[in-house]
């Protein structure tokens, strides 16, 4: 455990010292996004545009992540145990790409359809049966949706076969 904590601190310090706009905490054995990270990154949170938390063991994401890093453009949460996103995700005004592949979603995170800037959604390898295709069609920036390896019901599969404004992988 001490090694995992040291790895997280090292990566955060590198981000701060190098003035990076990306924070990569993938493969850090995280169960949650550590509160200490918010404190350490207070001075540079407005500079962070990309956060990668892939391949950890996180079951949920704190709404504080979205309020602290409000200028976030890309969020990679693939390979965790997440079942839902906080409501505040719908208020992310700059988010263009979210990767939620290989998590534990059984319901499509509806709040994503409220993000006008969102271009790419990856939900491959979850347990989702229904997709709100009409709401997705109303998203002005959406270009790509990946819902491969989900147990989509027949109505959803049919709806995804119809022409729409975005490319679909299912």
Automatic annotation (TrEMBL):
<dbReference type="InterPro" id="IPR001611">
    <property type="entry name" value="Leu-rich_rpt"/>
</dbReference>
<keyword id="KW-0433">Leucine-rich repeat</keyword>
<dbReference type="Pfam" id="PF13855">
    <property type="entry name" value="LRR_8"/>
</dbReference>
<protein>
    <recommendedName>
        <fullName>Leucine-rich repeat protein SHOC-2</fullName>
    </recommendedName>
</protein>
<keyword id="KW-0677">Repeat</keyword>
<dbReference type="InterPro" id="IPR032675">
    <property type="entry name" value="LRR_dom_sf"/>
</dbReference>
<dbReference type="InterPro" id="IPR050216">
    <property type="entry name" value="LRR_domain-containing"/>
</dbReference>
<dbReference type="GO" id="GO:0005737">
    <property type="term" value="C:cytoplasm"/>
</dbReference>
């Amino acid at each position: 455990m001490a090694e995992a904590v040291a790895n997280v601190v090292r990566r955060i310090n590198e981000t701060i010292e190098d003035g990076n706009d990306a924070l990569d905490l993938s493969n850090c054995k995280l169960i949650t996004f550590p509160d200490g990270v918010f404190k350490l990154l207070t001075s540079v949170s407005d500079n962070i545009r990309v956060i990668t938390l892939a391949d950890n063991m996180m079951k949920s994401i704190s709404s504080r992540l979205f309020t602290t890093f409000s200028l976030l453009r890309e969020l990679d949460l693939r390979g965790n145990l997440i079942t839902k996103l906080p409501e505040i995700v719908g208020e992310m005004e700059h988010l263009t790409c979210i990767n939620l592949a290989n998590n534990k979603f059984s319901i499509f995170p509806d709040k994503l359809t409220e993000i006008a800037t969102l271009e790419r959604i990856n939900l491959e390898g979850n347990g989702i049966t229904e997709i709100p295709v009409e709401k997705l069609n109303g998203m002005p920036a959406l270009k790509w949706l990946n819902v491969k390896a989900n147990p989509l019901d027949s109505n959803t599969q049919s709806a995804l076969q119809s022409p729409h404004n975005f490319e679909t992988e299912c």
